[in-house]
Design a protein that fits this description.
- This protein is α+β, with helices and mostly antiparallel strands and 312 residues long.
- It folds into two domains: 176 residues, Probable tRNA modification gtpase trme, domain 1 (Gyrase A, domain 2, 2-Layer Sandwich); 116 residues, Elongation Factor Tu (Ef-tu), domain 3 (Beta Barrel), CATH 2.40.30.160.
- Helix content is 14%, strand content 34%.
- The strands form three sheets. Strands 11-14-13-12-15-16 form a six-stranded antiparallel barrel. A five-stranded antiparallel β-sheet has the order 1-7-10-9-8. Strands 3-4-5-2-6 form a five-stranded antiparallel β-sheet.
- The radius of gyration is 19 Å and the shape is globular.
- The two termini are 30 Å apart.
């Protein structure tokens, strides 16, 4: 099985496929708290969270890294291709709340950083733990979940700032690390496809079950406490390139998809995908991209344990 050289997974790059929503105002925290799967009300200025935005049926419309920029200003970094629809839908529910929502993508530049050189460049401003955030060059650095044994950071700088003086990291390399982290990012091709637990959101800190209501909260809570979670997300090696939204089939069932690709990456001739899959489909047989006779998928290690007792 091909594995990229670790040197290809270190450096920095502009995250052209990400965007930023800004929420400002006295009610910004309470408004976002009532819309997202996370506790935003008590989010401090030295932390960030992964959050989901769901339909009333509990299906993810978007995922976002959320942090308090300062005071009553919050930033939500999400996939650029879901940002317009997410912003429009959130804006529908502001009503009389003192919260102004806007697309901040033109004023903030997002960068992905990975590896020891990135940590060294951040120096004393490098967040020590996952989901910590710090102030850097007039912007913010957030420690994301590690992948391939490497630290990863999301860096938000004022637009026009110089890029970090680090080796250039290829977009495919960043996507490889993203897949390897097991942290799902919702893109246009996967909107409304997953309840948070299907993509392990609660396992990577993306759902707070102690907070109040939000769209889809009853469905998410019921899946957690009353029902059996029958679908989960796992990292797979692939025989060929995969793409988000691509269906996955079990070798014994050519008619009914067993799952869907959440995120995917190809690097140095190797292919990886984070795949949401029926737990029962892991018991025997094999999994394939696109068709029951399509390219083979083979599970590989991921950095956190996934409960699979529901497969029985």
């Amino acid at each position: 099985m091909n594995e990229p050289d670790s040197s290809a997974l270190q450096g920095s790059l502009p995250l052209a496929d990400w965007g930023v929503i800004r929420a400002q105002g006295a009610d910004a925290a309470s408004f976002l708290h009532g819309q997202l799967t996370q506790d935003v009300q008590h989010l401090g200025e030295r932390n960030a969270v992964l959050a989901g935005y769901c339909t009333a049926k509990g299906r993810l419309l978007a995922s976002a890294v959320v942090w308090r920029a300062a005071g009553d200003e919050f930033l939500l970094a999400c996939s650029a291709d879901v940002l317009p629809a997410t912003l429009k839908r959130l804006s529908m529910f502001v009503l009389r709340a003192k919260c102004k929502l806007s697309d901040a993508s033109a004023t903030l530049a997002l960068h992905g950083l990975a590896g020891p050189a990135a940590t060294a460049w951040l120096g004393p401003n490098a967040p020590a733990s996952v989901w910590q955030r710090s102030d850097v060059l007039g912007g913010h650095a957030i420690r994301l979940p590690d992948a391939a044994g490497l630290a990863r950071y999301l860096l938000a700088l004022p637009n026009g700032s110089a890029s970090p003086p680090l080796p250039a990291l290829a977009p495919d390399a960043w996507r490889w690390l993203e897949v390897g982290s097991g942290m799902a990012r919702i893109v246009a091709a996967t909107v409304e496809q997953f309840v948070p637990q299907m993509v392990n959101f609660e396992l990577v800190g993306g759902v707070n079950f102690q907070k109040g209501c939000y769209p889809g909260q009853e469905v998410v809570a019921r899946s957690q406490y009353r029902g059996t979670i029958k679908r989960r997300a796992f990292v797979f090696a692939c025989d060929s390139a995969a793409r988000p939204g691509q269906e996955v089939f079990h070798s014994a069932d050519a008619d009914q998809p067993a799952g869907m690709v959440v995120n995917a990456a190809s690097l140095a001739g190797a292919h990886r995908a984070l795949v949401e899959i029926k737990l029962a489909a892991l018991e025997d047989g094999s999994l394939h991209l696109g068709a029951a006779a399509g390219p083979l998928l083979e599970r590989v290690a991921q950095p956190y344990a996934v409960p699979i007792e529901a497969a029985a």
